[in-house]
Every structure is written in C-alpha cells, then in structure tokens.
Amino acid sequence: MKPYIFITRKLPDEAVEPLKNKYEVTMWDKEDVAVPRSVLLEEAKKADALLTMLSDKIDEEIFSVGENLKVVANLAVGYDNIDIQKASEHGVAVCNTPDVLADTTADLTFALLMATARRIVEAAEFVKEGKWKSWAPLLLAGHDIHHKTIGIVGMGSIGSTVAKRAKGFDMNILYHNRSRKMDVEAELGAIYCSFDELVESADFIVCLTPLTAETKDLFTKDVFKKMKKTAIFINASRGPVVNEEDLYQALEASDIAAAGLDVFEQEPIDPAHPLLKLPNVVALPHIGSASIETRMDMMNMCVENIDLVLSGQESKTRVNKK
Ligand code: 8YV
C-alpha cells in the first residue's frame, strides 16, 4: 500500500503531480471552505502526511488519532496553528515555508503602508464613485513616506526585506527584535531600540513578529497611546498580536492616524466589525504571500518536505525538535 497524504485545500494539479506516483493523495476539494474538523480527524487517522493551512488546528487530538502520521507540512512560514510540542512528543516532523515568501510578503506590507499613508483605497473609490468634482489643495492629502521613520517589530527575513524597501524610500529604520541583527544594521543602517522607544518615535510602526505566548496582545491601549498622533500602524503578521478593540478605540479617538491590516483576530473578519467602518483603515484578506509565483514555491516546498520525510530523509525546514 502506498503512503497516504491528505491535503486540506484544493491545490493546482501541477503542485501535487510529483507526489502522485509514489503516494496516494487526497485533497479537500472545496476551494473556499476550510476542511471541517470532523473530516480532518477522519483523514488524520489514515494519513502518513498532512499538507495543512493556517486555518487548520493541528493539536493533540489530531496527533493522537494520527497513528501513522510522520509529517505535517504547513503552507505558511508561521505555524501558530500547530501544537509544536505535541508534534515532537508524537514524533511528527512539522515543516513550514520560510524565505520563499519574504519578498512577496514584504512587497505587500509596503503596499499596505503606502496605501494607508497616501489614502489610495479611499482615493480610488472617490474617483470611481464620481465624487471628483474639482481639484483642491488638500483633496485626499495623506502623509509622506520618504524620509520618515519606520519602526519594524520583528526583524526576521520578512522584516529585513521590508527594511530594504524602506531604505529605497530614504526612510530611517528602527527595529525591535529578540536579538540584534548586525547584518541589517551594517547593510541598511537600521537602529536597534527598545519596543517603547520604537513605538514612541516611529512614523510607521510595522508589526512582523510571529504569534507566540510573548507576542499575544503586544499592541494594547497603552502602546497605542505612546505612539505619535500621526503614526500609522501596519500589521502583516498575526491578528492576535494586536488587541483589536484597543486599536479601534485608538483610531476612533485619533490617538493614531491610520492602520493597514492584512491579519485579524478572527479570520475571515466579520464584515460588520467596527474597524471596517473606519475610513482610515485599509483591510486586506491575509494576502501577504499571495502571488501566484510565491504560492507555487510554497506548495512545492511543502510537497518536497513531505516526500523527503516519507522517504526516510530529513525535511528541509523542520521547525520542531526531534
Ligand atoms: C500564509 C502566512 O501563506 O506564511 C504565513 O505565515 O501568514 C501566509 O503567508 C497564508 O496564511 C496561507 O496559509
């Protein structure tokens, strides 16, 4: 019998083709509906490998029914949907897709920063809705980006790639990270500072930190109060790093100027969520890495990792201890 692989979302045929000869592969075939928990549990019972998405909770229950499970390849750099410790206890390798998505996610982060600062979404709607009747000196005037200070929270590979973009815009670069990044300091002139110092002095506060017990609710009311009134907050990491209610209050009270958000506490966000009613919020449906090229690279990386582990080799991007 061939080893069995379950893929929790529909992927293009060309991405799964390399697995077809050696393995039995089943894909959840609904493009825009997450695999129901009951189906995931049933599949985990049979699977040697799972190819998962951020929306799949891979926890002790999955590992304990998945008696044959050897590898979980997550189509993301983040893996906060997976209980890493339990995976190790059950001897399951967990792999992610680092680096291949850094440029694409940095592009999107910068697009969100620019859209928010220069009010691109509001302005585009203004034209399409036929509201452009005359030119006015301050019509849809936003904030400059060049020569301003960007504060990057989380200087991993996406953070340092955003810093490169910022350098091209002649920005001053501050960053806060668990450890100092001497290469980024030397190459881009980025300045390491405390979290408080960063939020107090940056014009753009860009959140790119992974979601962990330490970073959950990192951005609260007190933090937004410390920011400049003209500050623009960008989140392209994980929703729960931010207290959304506090962010809403800060925007409502004009404690900060605007926010660009690719991620939310609950995804998909409820369309009635008050944040979405604010004109100074640009909201995107978690599309940081969503270019065709990069998503194909991510899928290929997952497929390669699964094949390596099921062939008895080391995966390329294992994140948990053995
Ligand atoms: C995911 C992401 O690819 O990589 C991550 O951690 O957040 C995105 O790039 C996307 O959420 C699909 O799982």
TrEMBL record:
<dbReference type="Pfam" id="PF02826">
    <property type="entry name" value="2-Hacid_dh_C"/>
</dbReference>
<dbReference type="InterPro" id="IPR029753">
    <property type="entry name" value="D-isomer_DH_CS"/>
</dbReference>
<dbReference type="InterPro" id="IPR029752">
    <property type="entry name" value="D-isomer_DH_CS1"/>
</dbReference>
<comment type="similarity">
    <text>Belongs to the D-isomer specific 2-hydroxyacid dehydrogenase family.</text>
</comment>
<dbReference type="Pfam" id="PF00389">
    <property type="entry name" value="2-Hacid_dh"/>
</dbReference>
<dbReference type="InterPro" id="IPR050223">
    <property type="entry name" value="D-isomer_2-hydroxyacid_DH"/>
</dbReference>
<protein>
    <submittedName>
        <fullName>Glyoxylate reductase</fullName>
        <ecNumber>1.1.1.26</ecNumber>
    </submittedName>
</protein>
<dbReference type="InterPro" id="IPR036291">
    <property type="entry name" value="NAD(P)-bd_dom_sf"/>
</dbReference>
<feature type="domain" description="D-isomer specific 2-hydroxyacid dehydrogenase catalytic">
    <location>
        <begin position="5"/>
        <end position="320"/>
    </location>
</feature>
<dbReference type="InterPro" id="IPR006139">
    <property type="entry name" value="D-isomer_2_OHA_DH_cat_dom"/>
</dbReference>
<dbReference type="InterPro" id="IPR006140">
    <property type="entry name" value="D-isomer_DH_NAD-bd"/>
</dbReference>
<keyword id="KW-0560">Oxidoreductase</keyword>
<dbReference type="GO" id="GO:0047964">
    <property type="term" value="F:glyoxylate reductase (NADH) activity"/>
</dbReference>
<feature type="domain" description="D-isomer specific 2-hydroxyacid dehydrogenase NAD-binding">
    <location>
        <begin position="110"/>
        <end position="288"/>
    </location>
</feature>
